[in-house]
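Suppose a classmate hands you a notebook page containing two proteins, each written out with its sequence and a corresponding row of structure tokens. How would you begin to make sense of it? This section walks through that situation. The first entry is reproduced here exactly as it would appear on such a page.
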Amino acid sequence: MKKNIVLLYICLCLSSTLFADQSMQQNAANPNTISFQVILNNDNKPNNSIAIATIQETKTFSQQVTKLWNIHSPLPTEWQNKTTSFLKANKYKTMLFIVASVYAVLCYEVIKGYMYLNKENLWSSWRSTISFEELLAISQQQLSQELLRDIQLRYTNAQNINDFISPLATFLNDIEKETHYINYYNKLNTWLIRLHLSTIIPVSKKHFDGSKERLQRLAYLKNVFLSWATEYKIVTYQPKISGYIDKKATS
């Protein structure tokens, strides 16, 4: 803040000097303009009375601003002393407030995790009526076709039905986000159990115990999708690449 006051003082000095120079230019251009008059000495140098008066006014203004700053803003050491004395006088209340705040944040994160994992549109819940082993038993070709159909149904824009690529990109983005969130809640649950806080924080094993299988499902769906994308790219662009290579070889 004191640096700001110094900068304000410099700006005022510069603006006052520029105002004086502008006034002299206006007098030279228009003699009828009322302005300050600069008296020339014998050496044809301008009188410094206006500059001295301006500096004195800005100096007085700076002193007033500094005085107000000292009145309304205590010094850092004074603020630190007040804070230290307050914490010492209210030590137990402060500790109780910190513990209650940490407990409230942990409960909020756990509840938010429950709400997130209970969403029905998560890809980790896709085909949840069958077990993960049964999902692995389905051929990748059949599974990829079913997955692509559901991707297009979920993400296709009604205003741009012919857009085939955007739903696929959105799917990959949602897979990455969902993996990140499930990993986060899984680690949170692990640390709560390690610190023996699961007895005082409402942790449900039903929701967090299935996080490992959810991550396996997401990884498998991502692998199935990328395998299909690789095959689709080869089938689509291989004739064009082969034609380009043959054309370049003959030329």
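The notebook's second entry, a different protein, reads as follows.
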Amino acid sequence: MTSEILAAAFVTGILVKIVDQIEDKKIKLMENVNVFLGITYGFLIAYVMLKSEIVASLWMAAVLGNIIAGKIDAPGHRLGIFSMMLMLAVFGFPKIDAYLLVIFVLAAYFDEFLKGLSDKRKIKNKAIAKIASYRLLLEASAFAVSFYTGRWILFASILLFDIGYIIAAKLGKRY
């Protein structure tokens, strides 16, 4: 089951970035593909959450942090969140640890907030701006909780999501 969760996390990262790129570049021919990819990644997020309660707290927090930060701003992403919620409504919402949820929501929100400041060049120190652009708070908090609990699936799931996201970003720059 762990390998299924990690594979789904990796693919989800790829799909989320592809949806970003299609939306950001306003690729009209890809609108239907974008909708399909958003729905698919929503189902994958729900799948990951249903397979592991500790991972569910992290992934729900990442979604909520992005919603609060205003990052769910395009049809593909809205449908991704809708399909995630639909799947959870049908198959049952996983047990969420409230403490972890708060920690991870704050980390996800501040990742997006600091990334926004970095993108707008409002962080004067170049090294700090570069670090902020990588959105490392959620990963660091997941690492800390994994270290404390010994549940490394938590950190591994967000790490593989990020690896998929980064690969898609690098490939997207070529096209």
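A careful reader of the second entry would note: The chain has a mean pLDDT of 92.
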